[in-house]
TrEMBL record, chain A:
PROSITE patterns: LRR. Its main location: secreted. Residues 1-15 form the signal peptide. It comes from Engystomops pustulosus (Tungara frog). One of its GO terms (cellular component) is extracellular space. This is LRRNT domain-containing protein.
Automatic annotation (TrEMBL), chain B:
It comes from the Eukaryota. It is found in: Secreted, Extracellular space, Extracellular matrix. InterPro entries: Leu-rich_rpt, Leu-rich_rpt_typical-subtyp, LRR_dom_sf, LRRNT, SLRP, SLRP_I_decor/aspor/byglycan. This is Decorin. Binds to type I and type II collagen, fibronectin and TGF-beta. Forms a ternary complex with MFAP2 and ELN. GO terms for cellular component: extracellular space. Keywords: Disulfide bond, Extracellular matrix, Glycoprotein, Leucine-rich repeat, Proteoglycan, Repeat, Secreted, Signal. Residues 48-80 form the LRRNT domain. Belongs to the small leucine-rich proteoglycan (SLRP) family. SLRP class I subfamily. Its main location: secreted.
Amino acid sequence: MKECVLFYFLALCSAKPFVLPPKYMALTDLMMNDMDDDVDDDNDSDDDDDDNDRNSLFPFKRNMPLRPTLPPFNMFPTCPFGCQCYLKVVQCSDLGLASIPAKIPPDTRLLDLQNNKIKEIKEKDLQGLTSLSALFLNNNKLYKVHPKAFQSTNKLRRLYLSHNQLTEIPANLPKSLAELRIHDNKVKKVQKDSFKGMNSLHVLEMSANPLENEGIEPGAFEGLTVFHVRIAEAKLTSIPKGLPSSIYELHLDHNKISSVELEDFIRYKELQRLGLGHNKIKDVENGSLAYIPRVREIHLENNKLKKVPSGISDLKYLQVLFLHSNNIGKVDVNDFCPPPSKMKKSLYSGISLFGNPVKYWEVQPATFRCTLGRNSVQMGNFRK
Amino acid sequence: MKAVIILTLFATVCYSKPFYQKGLFDFMLEDDGSGTDIVPVDVPVGPTCPFRCQCHLRVVQCSDIGLEQVPKNIPPDTTLLDLQNNKITEIKEDDFKNLKNLHALILVNNKIKSISPGAFASLTKLERLYLSKNNLKELPTNMPKSLQELRVHENMVTKVKKSVFDGLNNMIVIELGTNPIESSGIEKGAFQGMKKLSYLRIADTNITNVPKGLPASLTELHLDGNKIAKVDSDSLNGLNNLAKLGLSYNNIISVENGSVSNVPHLRELHLDHNSLTLVPAGLNEHKYIQVVYLHNNKIAAVSTNDFCPIGYNTKKASYTGISLFSNPVQYWEIQPATFRCVYERSAIQIGNYK
């Protein structure tokens, strides 16, 4: 493992210099650079596939549409009307489109279709877009995605489906995905095969869906190495247990979670940021936080805690702890900081306790002996 | 002490790399538990990422997290800041103060009502500003001179003042669709100074005329879904670079003679869903036009010379799309010779599709 970290470190340090993109194309290039880098970071399985294709007897993929040869004096490249096409970016947002336009240039890398009225991704809508790496379909009226719609987009890295009417995670999404956003839809279920084979999925945002704990089928996240998971504003009543063990950030705010149980974090040893604000948590079971020794930031504001969770003072790297707007009536001098014999590796930069019944004059100053400074603690019962 | 030295070295090396990685990948720089000696002590190392956002390669992604204001502690070297789909109501004077490297700012789909006059002033490298789907009644003032693309779709903007675009000489794309803009609200010459403006869209508003005094640099003008009743030839005068003109879904009764010849490089003209009774004059002498949409109008007759040159073919680009369906004219009343300069049969859609 140590070697592994070293390797990454070397890779990062020797990465190619960030070249400033030509003026107008900044955004595009940023996204592209980003994608290129993501690809570089991966193992090369995707590329191997491509090589196979290139070496095969048939130079084109079977699904490549036969594009009619352009008339002799058509001197202009095609671009769907109203869209802007430049440098492999096709920008078709805000056009009131009712369907995905035809004539998208086959070498498109970024296709922005957000803020339209698209209801459906049909089987052939994305056909031939083999270079596509980002597809923005957020803010549409999508309720249906054909199971073969993504058949040719096998380089797709970012897929934004937020703010649509989807009731499930579309089947057969490309395995190449690194980021999937499906915020504010009507997803009730995460099927076992939804993310199957997505070895480079890093970010998964599926908040604001009517998702219950039972809706996540066991094994749905098996084998994945997702780093950032957000299932906020859903109907979760407890911390989901089957999430990828690689998670580094977990956000479950605005759910109906009522307690944190002993083994809730047993698989999430890498966790560094944890968002549990705006739930109904009454109790954090003793010992549960010991499973996430590397956590740096915990948000537990707007819950029903009666005391500072036990085990907080053992978290050597914890820097930010939000506990405001709870029901905490008493704070003990050793709730936050370890005894002098044990060293805290990073001092607190933010503790919030306002909006609790406890009075600031009842909290001993020594309680905060391991904070960076005075401004690190917000106590006052902020009420005007 | 040893640990401190190692740490210092570690930190220096990290800062010297060409771009830093934070957020998604910064866990890779952390210890993995086995090497607890080398661990940042006391002060958090490097800039932090706002909670629940993802910061990766100078891109700060904070969409869909219910933010009510612009978060603090955005890394100062951020180049792209995505704040879309939140509940931000206001942009304050200092919200973006330190983001001198910001190239793109995405504020789409919030509840922004007001933008402090100086909020964007320090963003001297900003090229793209996306403000669509908000509650703005006015376009922001003091936008940076570096701006190239402005999208303010679906707001409550009624007026376009000249002062707003004053000095924005790098502007290339402006999208102002779905706003209650009136023709009288567009100040004369509002767009004139923008010598690089290439794309302008003012669709689904209340304007009743094609705005006058548009810059000659325009290549695309989209005015569909408005209340335009007539196309005046002088409003298109001087648009020598215009290639695409969208006027669908208006109430256009006539296209004034000379309009088409005023835009000599037009290749695509959309006039579908209007109230035209005739094919616009001048198409037959136009050398580059390739697409003419005239479906869903009130055209009752098509003459043999409406589309193609009278003598021998002087067109420099052939038609690829002409639509005439959903008009009173019957296809058998149109003489085949009408399309003598069209080489691709499928380019013409006549049949009354119903």
